[in-house]
Amino acid sequence: MPTDSGDDRFDPRYDARFQRGYREGVEDFAVGVSQDDSVPSADAVDRAGPGSRARTADPVVRARTDEPDLAEVTFAQEWPEPGAYVWAAAPGIESGDADGSEVVAARMWPMVALWCVGIGLLLLGVAALMVGIQVNLTMSGGVPGDSPILIISAYAWALAQPALLVGLVTLVGAIALQMIRPQHRADA
Amino acid sequence: MSAPFNAGRDEVRLRRAAITTWIIGGCLVVGGLTMVWFERAGESVSGSGDLDQTAAQILWSMQVMQLPVLVAGLVALVFPLFLFALRSRRASSSRETSAE
């Protein structure tokens, strides 16, 4: 989020999650500042006023701000390009490089899990169907009712329909979720 | 700075709901498979002619119920993933909006 001066530094007036370059690991930087005394809290900066962010009469705030000037502190060490998040969030594109897109990769796990579960259920349903059909065709007679192969066949028949149904619904839902991804910016 | 607290609370609530749903879904799937097993056992007994009317009705109920129970269980196992995916979509969308 750009500040009033238009640069890309961390703006303490806003939540860190909504600022450019936000990383999960450095969340405490802006939210739980009391754990890190090297940076003044947003409340302390607000009390000090916009004109004197780093130097204030409050001794606690001054002690905190003596080390780094807030204006010198950047929220993330390396800024990704404006379109980096958009590209990293796009499906099928490898992410995990050092420009901050690991966060996006970490947040994409539900979509990956949805695809995996959908495909897995579909394959399970097809396999169950094949097993059921094969057992029915090859062992239609002369097998006792409590035979393990017939029990497996019963499980396969019972699982085939739900697995196919839920697998297809999951895949359709995953496709629908992919469709409603955020709109790409023109300059990305 | 109340937004992070609310966001954290929502996160905890969502995870708790997801775990509960997964447990219910697991129980439903196990229950459905148990119904399959009972139905199979009942069919082998009914083949020998030792099944009374009540047992036959229970068997028939299990036969009817096993498909909906298995479907509901699998849906309950998958549904929390949709919630997590939707939430991550919203998070990335709001992050890009704020970046603009």
Structural write-up:
The complex is a heterodimer of chains A (188) and B (100). Chain A is mainly α and 188 residues long. Chain A has six helices and no strands. In chain B, helix 1 runs antiparallel to helix 2. The model of chain B is unreliable at 1-5 (pLDDT under 50). In chain B, 93% of the residues lie in helices and 0% in strands. Chain B has helices spanning 2-47, 53-99. The chains are: A mainly alpha (188), B mainly alpha (100). At the A-B interface, helix 3, helix 5 and helix 6 of A face helix 1 and helix 2 of B.
Give the topology, please.
The complex is a heterodimer of chains A (188) and B (100).
Chain A: H1 42-48, H2 59-65, H3 84-89, H4 102-107, H5 109-138, H6 148-179
Helix pairs in contact in A: 5-6
Chain B: H1 2-47, H2 53-99
Question: Rg of chain B, please?
Answer: 22 Å
Low-pLDDT stretches of chain B are 1-5
Structural class of the secondary structure composition of chain B? mainly alpha
Overall body shape of chain B: rod-shaped
Query: Largest interface, counted with CB-CB under 8 A?
Result: A-B, 50 and 41 residues
End-to-end gap of chain B:
22 Å
Q: Determine the fraction of residues in helical runs of chain B and give it as a percent range.
A: over 70%
Largest sheet of chain B: none
Tell me the helix content of chain A: 40-55%
